[in-house]
């Protein structure tokens, strides 16, 4: 197993450096090419210069760029929605290198695509039931508990992303994605082995008793819980989504999102780093604490959604707040979004793959849409182009969810979700890491300043 880890690490580094060298050569060669092919180097020059930000928006016209970009968008949304990571690690390099947008516009369009994919995937998940329990596949209790601190962490991470140099963010991004993808792969392998053992035990039980699991009813059991799959074989796995929503928790999560949206809108209407600006920025803290304490108190007293009466111990509540805050900071700092951290984190703490994917996607829908609102107010993306790519991502995400649901039901292996998650993060590591390294190389060649930045001077 150690050799596998070492080989994976070496292979990933080689892929990242090869991608970075290729990207750098492409960008440098574009200096001497015609105007339609000079978008990338222009975008990099705009970002690296200290003359201010100017966007680069190519015309939306049919050609190989939009065809290839659409295909990559479909793949990214399909794989990203399944694992609950959104696909932003694939969207950003695609929009920069294929479609020709500048990096800031690419991030904005990527958030639009992630939001569209997340909304589509959540709509699919709203009709799904938990694989073993008679409750929705989305864990509303967990989402309401972590959403306030997650949103606060994203705000902190965005501030840090403005202050930190590009090379710092690139190094952290590669390390995080590398560790996460490897851990997810091992988690998937472990779950696969448990499922294999589970199927063998179920096969033995079916040959000895008539009380067998009906394979046509969907994936109902988990590794190590043979009796639950048999006990729940009469439960529907898909219901009307209106009756499958815990409306109280759903509305509260929406109110958390709405509160942060209002603060973001108000913050953009005042001067950067003014007294009013910092008051609005710091007002996120009492909102976060208020919503968190409300849900933490309810879970501690056993008042969970659906009347399950599950008591959460204090140390679990505290750990959830710390992990979600750190996840938000990392997601905001690296620009990957909350799903890149929350999805693998949910799996690490033992949450069922279907629930981990659905819950991470549900939270990502709110966090990504918050960024979209802010980017729209800042006029960071062309609306027609963004709408087209968002629609493509939404359709692909729904089809991806439907496909993985069928595969899990057919093969009785939820570990497929984990493997898709690990693969998506691995590809994102190569793409984002390669683009990041190529940017750093060009910055070094241009003798650009590569230290910490002033937040107030760069917060535009």
TrEMBL record:
Q: How does it sit in the membrane?
A: Multi-pass membrane protein
Gene Ontology CC: Cul4A-RING E3 ubiquitin ligase complex; membrane
UniProt-annotated location(s): Membrane
Q: Identify the InterPro entries for this entry.
A: TM_pro_TauE-like (IPR002781)
Q: Do the record's keywords include DNA-binding?
A: no
The record's principal subcellular location, in a coarse class, is: membrane
Q: Which residues cross the membrane?
A: 6-22, 66-99, 105-126, 138-161, 167-186, 245-263, 275-294, 314-335, 355-378, 385-404, 416-442
Give the domain of life: Eukaryota
Query: Which Gene Ontology biological process is one annotated for this entry?
Result: protein ubiquitination
Pfam families documented for this protein: TauE (PF01925)
Q: Which UniProt keywords apply?
A: Membrane, Transmembrane, Transmembrane helix
Which family, according to the similarity comment?
Belongs to the 4-toluene sulfonate uptake permease (TSUP) (TC 2.A.102) family.
Protein's name in the database: Sulfite exporter TauE/SafE family protein
Source organism (scientific name): Phaseolus vulgaris
């Amino acid at each position: 197993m150690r050799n596998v880890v070492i080989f994976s690490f070496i292979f990933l580094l080689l892929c990242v450096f090869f991608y970075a060298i290729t990207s750098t050569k492409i960008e440098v060669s574009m200096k001497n090419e015609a105007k339609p092919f000079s978008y990338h180097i222009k975008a990099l020059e705009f970002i690296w210069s200290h003359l201010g930000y100017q966007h680069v928006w190519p015309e939306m016209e049919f050609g190989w760029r939009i065809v290839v970009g659409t295909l990559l968008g479909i793949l990214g949304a399909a794989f990203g929605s399944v694992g609950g990571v959104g696909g932003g690690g694939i969207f950003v390099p695609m929009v920069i290198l294929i479609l020709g947008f500048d990096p800031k516009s690419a991030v904005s369009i990527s958030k639009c695509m992630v939001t569209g994919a997340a909304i589509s995937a959540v709509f699919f998940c709203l009709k799904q039931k938990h694989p073993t329990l008679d409750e929705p596949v989305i864990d509303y209790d967990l989402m309401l508990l972590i959403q306030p601190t997650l949103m606060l962490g994203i705000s902190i991470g965005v501030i840090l992303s403005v202050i930190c140099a590009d090379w710092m963010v690139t190094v952290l991004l590669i390390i995080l994605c590398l560790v996460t993808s490897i851990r997810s792969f091992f988690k998937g392998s472990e779950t696969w082995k448990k499922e294999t053992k589970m199927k063998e035990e179920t096969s033995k039980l079916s040959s000895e008793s008539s009380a067998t699991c009906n394979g046509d009813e969907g994936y109902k059991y988990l590794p190590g819980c043979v009796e639950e799959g048999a006990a729940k074989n009469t439960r529907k796995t898909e219901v009307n989504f209106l009756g499958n929503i815990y409306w109280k928790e759903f509305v509260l999560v929406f109110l958390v999102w709405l509160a942060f949206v209002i603060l973001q809108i108000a913050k953009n209407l005042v001067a950067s780093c003014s007294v009013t600006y910092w008051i609005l920025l710091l007002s996120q803290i009492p909102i976060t604490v208020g919503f968190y304490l409300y849900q933490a108190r309810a879970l501690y007293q056993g008042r969970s959604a659906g009347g399950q009466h599950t008591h959460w111990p204090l140390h679990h509540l505290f750990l959830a707040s710390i992990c979600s805050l750190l996840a938000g900071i990392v997601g905001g700092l690296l620009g990957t979004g909350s799903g890149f951290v929350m999805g693998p984190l949910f799996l690490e703490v033992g949450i069922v793959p279907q629930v981990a994917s659905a819950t991470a996607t549900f939270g990502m829908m709110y966090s990504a849409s918050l960024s979209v609102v802010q980017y729209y107010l800042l006029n960071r993306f062309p609306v027609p182009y963004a709408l087209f790519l968002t629609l493509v991502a939404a359709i692909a995400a729904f089809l991806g969810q439907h496909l993985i649901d069928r595969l899990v039901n057919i093969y009785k292996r939820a570990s497929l979700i984990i493997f898709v998650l690990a693969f998506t993060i691995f590809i994102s590591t190569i793409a984002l890491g390669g683009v990041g390294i190529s940017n750093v190389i060009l910055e070094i060649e241009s003798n650009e300043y590569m230290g910490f930045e002033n937040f107030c001077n760069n917060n535009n």
